[in-house]
Design a protein that fits this description.
Layout: E1 3-8, H1 11-16, E2 23-28, H2 31-41, H3 45-49, E3 60-64, E4 67-68, E5 80-85
Parallel strand pairs: 1-5
Antiparallel strand pairs: 1-2, 3-4, 3-5
Length: about 90
């Protein structure tokens, strides 16, 4: 059953999709549903976040209420989903 969740998107991703907001509310039961909702709003966004397996791309991190999530992670009503791009360097 879908619940309302808050999704925070990275600035770099928001900049690629005209009209995208850094914080959106969507109805979703899992992280995969969040990706589908983002894709419905901004076609092409899911391809930036997920690969063809399907899985979250390795340079993307998704946190649900502060804990790392996968596409199968179930969501509670009011959950806070944060999508971050990985930072690397040396």
């Amino acid at each position: 059953m879908a619940v309302q969740v808050s999704v925070t998107l990275p600035g770099a991703l928001v900049a690629l999709f005209p009209g995208a907001s850094p914080r959106v509310e969507v109805a979703a039961a899992t992280v995969a549903d969040v990706m589908a909702a983002l894709e419905a709003c901004w076609p092409g966004m899911r391809d930036r976040l997920c690969d063809s397996r399907p899985a979250i791309r390795r340079h993307i991190n998704v946190f649900v209420d502060g804990e790392r999530g996968t596409l199968d992670t179930r969501l509670r009503d009011g959950a806070d989903v944060v999508i971050l791009t990985a930072i690397s360097g040396g």
